[in-house]
Amino acid sequence: MLNPCRTFIPSCSLHFRLLVAFVLGWLSLPVIAETSWQALNQPGKRESVYFATVELPYIDVYSGAGRGYPVFHVIERGEAFAVIKRRNDWFKIVTSTNVTGWVKASALNGNSDGLGESIAIANVDSDDFGQRPFEVGITVGDFGGTDSVSLYGSYHFIDKMAGVLTYSENFGDVSNGRTVGLTLEARPFPAWRLSPFFSLGGGQRWTSPKQSQAQGDTVNNGFFLVGGGVHLFLTSRFAFRAEFNQHIVLTNLDDDQQINEWKIGLSTFF
């Protein structure tokens, strides 16, 4: 698995490495554990699994979630199966003969569920993302000409508005920095798959000289930022994130310091 600290920033602190490992572990968690038909039918398990029966002449089962994968199995009329995962308009299923594969959402319509009711599956759209108010992610990028890595979490507390808490570290030739920021994000089109956002916020920044350079104390400054970016929703749970921010660092000098930042990363919603 890619380690952003080792790949981009060899000098990350131990605590930050642990935080990165935790986020990457969370991002790699499966939505529903894969299991066998017999295990799904155990008492206490059936209530949490979606069962269905084929009412159509047949359903094609693909080896992967996409039209480019081959059909390797056919479920015939009257055969039961269980749905264990959804990926956009594809569903992962396990048949009563322990065949595991993927079926298109449209292929499920017209069959019957465990209560004998007809199934009607809506195509996934970006509205599904808006039903997941929490987001966590990791980004890497450039902060004023230095490598940076960030961890963030957000909460979508009202329609089209989210609060974001970010912790960042950046590493330069002369000094290293740590930043904690709190921003408000306006998300005017949350239902779009490529959804823009605009940020306004502030926080605190600590800048420390490297040991190999002239000795000095850590400098603590407040800052404001304004920026924007986009979410590209990859699935109902994951999104690619790209953003650009302009920081105004408040200093004791006549002119405050302006620092540009860009970063990209991956986030998950829950």
Automatic annotation (TrEMBL):
Residues 47-112 form the SH3b domain. Pfam families: SH3_3 (PF08239). InterPro entries: OMP/PagP_B-barrel, SH3-like_bac-type. This is SH3b domain-containing protein. It comes from BD1-7 clade bacterium. The lineage of its organism: Bacteria, Pseudomonadati, Pseudomonadota, Gammaproteobacteria, Cellvibrionales.
